[in-house]
Every structure is written in C-alpha cells, then in structure tokens.
Amino acid sequence: MGFGIKDLFTTINLLGGVVAICLCIDGHPYWAGLSVMIGYFAGDTLDGYIARKLGTSNQFGAEYDTISDHLSHIVAPAAIVYTVYKDAGLLPEPWGNVLAIALAASIIVAVSVRHARNIVAPVEVKGVWAGLPRSVLGFWAMSFVNATLAPHAPGGWWFGVVIIPLMSLATLTYLPFPSHRIARKHRLAFKVVAVIWLGTTAASIIAAPKFFFDIQFFFMAGYSLSAWMSLTADERVEYGKAVAATKAVLRSKARAS
What we know:
Helices cover 73% and strands 2% of the residues. By secondary structure, the chain is mainly α. It has one domain (5-247): Four Helix Bundle (Hemerythrin (Met), subunit A) (Up-down Bundle). It has a two-stranded antiparallel sheet.
C-alpha cells in the first residue's frame, strides 16, 4: 500500500497539471497545454505499464492515479479553456468572464458527476468505458482552444461555446467507448493510428510547433466520432445489458432515498 516506483510516474502526470494551472495564472495557455501533454506522455502512459511489469498494482496506486488524472486531464484543461475564453472578447465584461467560467465549469462538473455515478452504480463491462472518457474530453477541449485553426472554425470561438458543453454532456451519457485494456481484433489498426499520431505529433514539435494542438484536436475528434465502431456485436449486446442493470440500480436507489 506504500508509495512505489510506479507512483513516481503518476506524480509526473500530476505535476504536469499543477504546472499547467500555474501557467494559466500567468496567462500562458499554450505552454500550459504542453505541460499537461508532457505529464501525460512522461507519466500517465508509463505508470500502469510499470505496475504490471513489476507486479505492484494496488488500491493506493489506482486511487492516486484517478486523482492525478482528474487534476491533470480535467481541472488543468478547464483552466486552459477559461484562460483563453476570458480574453476572447465574445461578450462585454463581466459577461465574457462569466462565459469563460461556465465553459470551464461544464467540464469539471460533468466529469465529477460521472465519477461519483460510476462509484455508486458502475457499468462493468471489461474493455468498454461508459460515456466519453474524461481524458479525451480534457485533451479535446484544451487542444481546441490552443489550435491555430480554432478562430477559423465555423462560428469561430462561438463553436467552442456550443461544442464544449455538448462534449461535457457526452461524458454523462452511456455511449460505449472501447478501452485500451484488452486486446482487440482491430489492434493492428489501432497501432497504425497510434504510430501516425505519435509521428505527426513529433514532427509538429520539431517542424511546426504552432500546429501541435491542431493535430491533437484532430485525433481526439476522430476518436470521439469513430471509436465505437471497433466494438463487436457481442460487446454491444453485453454492454446494453450492463447499462440496463445499472439504470435499474440507480432507479432503485432514487426510490429509496
């Protein structure tokens, strides 16, 4: 139950979010986003792998990882969204600031409610997440506001005003999303996409860093729209039954309260 090697990498992920929030306070949302991504690549992608290789998975590590992800993948991206939108000039003050707070709050509140609901009545199907994964939401939101093409999207910054709350609500749905924790028939396709993602990400850092978040936004949007297609028919049937059982538990708890 103690602090182990794997938890050092979880701490890197956590510190990426802490640094990002501090950079937002100083008005640097782009560098804040990079801090989150560095924490993710250097910490969050490795802690689980190391825990499995060393056989050191435990409840402490799981809880610590959950807390770290919530701060770095949700709270920090929400702070980035606020930092960008408070200066976007969409509305006269103080309403511009109110709008920025509302957008940030939509992310944090939705994911917090989802987390609480999943503890009370989880949908337990191996290899499937219920609702848009929180990290995808956080990375998608901070990538959009830091993307060079964001002001040129249909509606410009107003596009984000609409889509960020909608994506936040997507985390509260029971839409199925495949997790990476089991092997699937499409594993080769996943690896190809992952290699393209990592390759274009590395290339953008070296050759065109200003487009780094445009690339992240593209891949996060692609996952959000198409990942469900990788689920098999049997997985969808099993997942539908699990969702029905979970909703029955929630209704029972609501009547009892």
